[in-house]
Amino acid sequence: MRRTTLDLWVGFFVVIGVAALMFLAFKVGNLGAANGGETYLVTGQFDNIGGLKVRAPVKSAGVVVGRVKEIRFDSKTYRAVVSLSLDATYQFPRDTIGTILTSGLLGEQYVGLEPGGDEAMLKTGDALQITQSAVVLEKLIGQFMFDKAAEGSAPAN
Amino acid sequence: MNGLLNFIRRLGAAAVEGVWRIGFAARFFMLLLRHSGQSLTRIHLTVREIYFSGVLSLLIIVVSGLFVGMVLGLQGYETLQRYGSGDALGVLVSLSLTRELGPVVAGLLFASRAGLAVTAEIGLMKTTEQLDAMDMMAVNPIARVVAPRFWGGVISMPLLAALFSAMGVFGGWLIGVVFIGVDDGAFWSQMQAAVDFRFDIMNGVIKSFVFGATVALIAVFEGYDCTPTAEGLSRAITRTVVTSALAILALDFVLTSLMFRGQS
């Protein structure tokens, strides 16, 4: 085969290979939207994070405003420290409440932010003052059974 | 007693032979890397090999990717539907393709389509003493014949795997959205929310790169190492396919356990 035809075919191959990679990156992986823009880091301490994972979404009013960057355990306070990387286009008041919620009954867990009324906004390095832990199903069922038992025994006395 | 001794002796010979081959392959690899300069300075040698291992594998990769994606779409929808989450079809199709099926299946196809051809070509060159003739003319056969074929494979494989995954996602979309009627927006948006570029797609690309290098190395090594007879050549070709397939599957397990351990 002549050299120019060969080069043409190989060029064509490389172009569609790279195009496939671009398709995976932008259409499947949503690269442009996910990593665009600057972020700022906020931490929050939780008594129990349940099944929260790194890279889980941070939502406010149902809109994704950031991602969970890091989860570690503070051995002084015995609480979980969750670092949230928030999109810089979204600003939240300093008294924002962080809650760990579950999407749907069996869905993934995410961090919900409920804005407060403070004038000052959260900056990098700030900590969420008020947090609410994940609901642990076993505790909830245990409490329910305890309440039922108490209810059942009350009229007898 | 004698039979037992003989058995142990044969076992030992097989072990020594195996270790010797691994060592020879490692030294061959170093030699190949040292003589790779020419395949970059005389780039048309490598371009020619990309044509043979990459461009000629396009059709089988595209068609297989499409069918694998369509089967994933049908089967995945069947199962997801039972849990009432048929919308998550895009997530299932894209994650299984970019993380596992793309690199692995494309690697297996690449081994049997391109790797085999490389082994046969180099083996036949050795059998007909063309490699020795080159050596006599002071042309290094590793630099002139082996290295371009190796680099051609290394460059082609990630592109083929990406193409396979992209075609698979398209096939899944075709079945899920066009034929079954999953909502188009939910299909793409759930996929985009679940697939991470660095975590899922880049790891898939790294995998396909590793598989490409492995298959290309096995193919050129088996060709170069083959016994220069018709029978030896056929055995070398068989070994290329078997060893490549085993190496891809074993390496895939190792890479997966390194990349995705304990996460999501």
UniProtKB/TrEMBL annotation, chain B:
It is found in: Cell inner membrane. The chain crosses the membrane at residues 50-74, 159-181, 201-224, 236-260. It comes from the Bacteria. Keywords: Cell inner membrane, Cell membrane, Membrane, Transmembrane, Transmembrane helix, Transport. InterPro entries: ABC_MlaE_roteobac (IPR003453), MlaE_Permease (IPR053408), Permease_MalE (IPR030802). It is a multi-pass membrane protein. Pfam families: MlaE. Belongs to the MlaE permease family. Part of the ABC transporter complex MlaFEDB, which is involved in a phospholipid transport pathway that maintains lipid asymmetry in the outer membrane by retrograde trafficking of phospholipids from the outer membrane to the inner membrane. Probably responsible for the translocation of the substrate across the membrane. The complex is composed of two ATP-binding proteins (MlaF), two transmembrane proteins (MlaE), two cytoplasmic solute-binding proteins (MlaB) and six periplasmic solute-binding proteins (MlaD). This is Intermembrane phospholipid transport system permease protein MlaE.
